[in-house]
Amino acid sequence: MRALFWLLDSAISLYVWALIIAAVLSLLLAFNVLDSRNRFVWAVADFFYRVTEPVLRPIRRRLPDLGGVDLSPLVVILVLQALRIFLATTLAPALGVYAY
Question: Domain locations in the chain?
Fold first, then answer.
């Protein structure tokens, strides 16, 4: 059971990092710091877009329009961190498994 909690915590942590990388990558592409015509840059950007967009799209639809500022990665990261805290402090001790 402890391994399951560790796996879930690690998956959440990796997804948070994927969200951060995707947000930074989109900014670098938007300001032409990275060339999207480069095959490697395009492949990396496409990967992170496909990994993060299914979660970000519903959040974007519910957030108000802030004039081009996308806060959906921040909202998803906050929710995921709250889930990690909930798992570590409430659910794991209730099941007799300690997360750390």
Answer: 2-94
